[in-house]
Amino acid sequence: MRAAEKNLTGALRKTAVAFLILGMLPAFSEDGYELWLRYRRMPEREGSYRDCLKNLLVPGKSATAEVIRKELRMALPALSGAPVSFLKDQAPLDQNLAAAGCWKDLEAAGILRPGMSRQDPGDEGFFIRMERQGQQRILLVAGDTDVSALYGVFHLLRLLQTGMMTDSLSVISLPAVRLRLLNHWDNLDGSIERGYAGRSLWNWSGLPPDPDPRLADYARACASIGINGTVLNNVNASAEILTSPYLEKIEALAGLFRPYGIRIYLSAQFSAPMILGGLKTSDPREPAVAGWWAAKAEEIYNRIPDFGGFLVKANSEGQPGPQDFGATHSDGANMLAAALAPHGGVVIWRAFVYDTSIDPDRAKCAYREFTPLDGRFGSRVLVQAKNGPIDFQPREPFHPLFGAMPHTPMMLELQITQEYLGQSKHLVYLAPMWKEILKSDTYVRGPGSTVGRIVDGSLEHHVLSGMAGVANTGDERDWCGHPFAQANWYAFGRLAWDHTLHARDLADEWIRMTWSLDPAVVDSIKSMMSGSWEACVNYMTPLGLCHIMQEGHHYGPDPGFNRAARPDWNSTYYHRADSSGIGFDRTTAGSDAVSQYAPPLRDLFNDLETCPEKFLLWFHHVPWGHRMQSGKTLWEEMQERYKAGFAYVSGMRNTWKRLKNELDPERWMEVDEKLRAQEENARVWRDVCLDYFGRFAER
Ligand code: BDP
User: Fold this and answer.
1) Is 621 helix (H, G, I), strand (E, B) or coil?
2) Ligand 1 neighbour 391 (Cβ under 6 A)
3) Is 687 among the catalytic positions?
4) How confident is the model at residue 19 (pLDDT cuts 50, 70, 90)?
5) In which domain, by residue range, is 669 found?
6) Which of 100, 146, 429, 529 could join 141 via S-S bond, C-beta 3.0 to 4.6 A?
């Protein structure tokens, strides 16, 4: 044995002795980088599907087929503990095998035989089922395109990881909405607006030719949950991203993302023709302006033939827009759509507007500006509204634009990054909030006219449909800045694919893939996650309160804040607490925002007795002594809610402490520390708010 080897062996022995003395085993260290794609050993289960997984056939030569092979090569041996072999495209098919690919490649490889039905799950859908041919079994994962097969493969891997795979399982799955996008609010200097997980993932200075290697993992993670597009830059856009040096970089990114089925979109700054083109105007009705955009579109598509389109924040929070020239939102959107039309792109036009001259109640502005334009947007335009009428608050009723623009495809914008919900410091599982919105019945076409059905286009028969999530990713090692924030990225993708999935089931599968398969551990973590959003609502803004966070950064409470440049950036504007009561009167006797909802909702919200208590102070100014359903007065109930919110966080902390020996130490410790900070912060929220509101209530 050479000296160096001897030293090494000696060192290893010492380490082993040290671990024995400490009475512990060297635990496997994890840093969260792998997300839900950890591929640890799957549970031992009977089933002939396991035999199939030893021989794999992935025909086809596309880059996506290569991605599928790579993923299976990595995942299956790790999951099953057994080696796998890949069959040649024309291998003799006389053994059990798993075959994944698009129909035409599977046909060419002789996998599809007479008698095997070929259903049509659309160009992105897939199916998974066991086929039997004599003694031979084939586990078939197939779709119309390579990318749909990739979605199927990720679905299969999820079933294996979570222990849900069985021989009799037959899955057919197709996405609910066409555009399933992450919106990155990334600036070109690498900072991220409302980002809490480090800096931008796009390493502009290295592009091309050196993309950050983790970008392929970003694309994998997105594809694994069905995300098919990414808006690279902040909605508060810099025009520079449309210049050729950036387009060259974006072309490189597009090439990297394409095999994963991810298209690139860009936020477009409306005055780019002036800034970049030297034009005197950006008036959408000017032929020179339209011509500039048409040429820009041409330039983009020459580089990126599958470019998705533009996202536009116009005449909103100081951003330029068509109204600067006396034109309308639809004039602006249609002009851009005409530039993209020859190439197949779309325009996503945001409805996040709240000009005080439109209405003094901020919650009413977007509806008042946009509903008169319904029917005037071209066929390639989607209007994108946030889930609620104010701004990604802990809880809002659904945005009244959903259901009010039947002729316009309405895209839903959710915020994955927790701007107003404790950022990357609080454990808040957001799927229950998103489900509450998606399940909300607008009643616009009678009962069952849910926001989900408006967004997926089925209610009004729109071809275009979409959901966007403002991303919570950054360059921190664990992507999202909090191990549990990964669950929100995960749940967003899964709900964009299928908004009928249940929040609890999504938590269940995410926990199994991310933390542990031990049923007791799964249940404990699930119980923490399930109530975490409601708890956050309680310790921040219970009973329909909103926007009482500290100014600017929006972290921590400041209910007394009233020095903002605009009235509707003040906390006092929203809660309106005085000695008579608290809440914003949006009834017919007040701002009349209730009338933006269809009956019977309008009447339900309008009446203090029937208004759901979760929205009470959103719609009503309520006397402190008002009797709540619990029998308590409003003030008593409010105190209860703040205390319950805090207590829930303490409960999560205790549960987590009990899981110490069940989980890997690195991630356990990080979450433990985060929960400590969250508990402290929830205590501050409770104390500051009760002290402040108590000054009115107990007067
Ligand atoms: C608000 C954010 C702001 C965004 C804006 C938007 O505070 O940073 O620019 O929304 O969505 O929530 O445009």
Assistant:
1) coil
2) yes
3) no
4) very low
5) 535-584+621-697
6) 100
